[in-house]
């Protein structure tokens, strides 16, 4: 499997779900991981898991939508050494079509999912360009909802479409800089994020809706966080040196229909 020995990685939204799986895998493959999450306790728990497995990690409390906080976080990272890998994974959702979405709902989702990726990618890119030798890998976690219509996911789909465009734009603008920028577009992945969505929005029918989420992937189930983490590992590794501007779809066949 691809190795990350000697590399430093920062993963946002790493306190649970896909971000946690990425942090654990990267550390297992030799990287020193900064586990960033708004939930300090969640980040600390992942750091403990990494340490118990013999890896190297540290926690960083971070609200990716706060520009000042992002600037400070990346300044602290720069003082500690290189930043070889940045994974922009932090994200939130909202259930509703355009008529069911308030301006506040829109702003809340876009603040984390689009603005957060913009802020972190900008600061990460600045650091990667300034360090010597320059270069690095930025991986943005988008979604198939940014590529196809998903019922009643209006602001979420818009935000993930923005992530895809952000990815491609940075990749082309800095294609010869040594910094590679790619996105992963998962289908529905069974995470605490999904379970929270079910509890909030379908408290009386959670089991039935969960089965629907499994069934809408032609392969017959939701994805697993470790399956997304494996894709991120490839994009982070030196073996992916010719890959930039890509949007890797991992969705059990959903978008192939």
Question: Mind sketching the topology for me?
Answer:
Elements: E1 8-11, H1 17-28, E2 32-37, H2 40-52, E3 56-61, H3 67-80, E4 85-88, H4 103-130, E5 136-141, H5 154-173, E6 179-186, H6 192-201, H7 206-215, H8 225-236, E7 247-250
Parallel strand pairs: 1-2, 1-4, 2-3, 4-5, 5-6, 6-7
Order of helices and strands: EHEHEHEHEHEHHHE
Strand arrangement within the widest β-sheet reads: 3-2-1-4-5-6-7
Assigned CATH superfamily: NAD(P)-binding Rossmann-like Domain
Radius of gyration: 17 Å
> How many individual domains?
1
The largest sheet, given as strand count, sense and whether it forms a barrel, is:
7 strands, parallel
Report the top-level CATH class. Alpha Beta
Structural class: alpha/beta
Helix content: 40-55%
CA distance, first residue to last residue: 31 Å
**CATH fold naming:** Rossmann fold
| Beta-strand residue percentage | 5-15%
- Helix count equals 8
Uncertain spans, ≥5 residues at pLDDT below 50?
none
Indicate the CATH architecture.
3-Layer(aba) Sandwich
Overall average pLDDT: 97
Molecular shape: globular
Can you count the beta strands?
Answer: 7
Description:
The protein is an alpha/beta fold and 257 residues long. It has a single domain (8-190, 224-252), classed as Rossmann fold, CATH 3.40.50.720. It is built from 8 helices and 7 strands. It has helices at residues 17-28, 40-52, 67-80, 103-130, 154-173, 192-201, 206-215, 225-236; strands at residues 8-11, 32-37, 56-61, 85-88, 136-141, 179-186, 247-250. The longest helix has 28 residues, at 103-130. It is globular, with a radius of gyration of 17 Å. The relative contact order is 0.15.
């Amino acid at each position: 499997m691809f190795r990350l020995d000697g590399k430093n990685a920062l993963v946002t939204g790493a306190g649970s779900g896909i971000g946690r799986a990425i942090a654990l895998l990267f550390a297992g493959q030799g990287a020193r991981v900064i586990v960033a999450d708004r939930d300090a306790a969640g980040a600390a728990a992942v750091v403990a898991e990494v340490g118990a497995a013999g890896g190297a990690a540290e926690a960083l409390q971070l609200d990716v939508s706060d520009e000042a906080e992002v600037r400070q976080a990346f300044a602290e990272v720069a003082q500690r050494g290189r930043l070889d890998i940045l994974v922009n994974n932090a994200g939130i959702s909202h259930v509703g079509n355009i008529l069911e979405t308030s301006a506040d709902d829109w702003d809340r989702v876009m603040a984390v999912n689009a603005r957060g990726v913009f802020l972190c990618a900008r600061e990460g890119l600045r650091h990667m360009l300034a360090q010597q030798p320059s270069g690095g890998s930025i991986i943005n976690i988008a979604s198939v909802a940014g590529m196809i219509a998903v019922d009643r996911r209006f602001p979420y789909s818009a935000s993930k479409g923005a992530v895809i465009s952000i990815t491609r734009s940075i990749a082309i603008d800095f294609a010869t800089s040594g910094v590679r920028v790619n996105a992963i577009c998962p289908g529905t992945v069974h995470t605490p994020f999904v379970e929270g969505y079910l509890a909030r929005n379908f408290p009386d029918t959670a089991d039935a809706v969960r089965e629907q989420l499994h069934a809408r992937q032609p392969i017959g189930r939701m994805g697993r966080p470790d399956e997304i983490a494996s894709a991120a590992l490839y994009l982070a590794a030196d073996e992916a040196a010719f890959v930039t501007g890509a949007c890797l779809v991992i969705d059990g066949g959903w978008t192939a229909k």
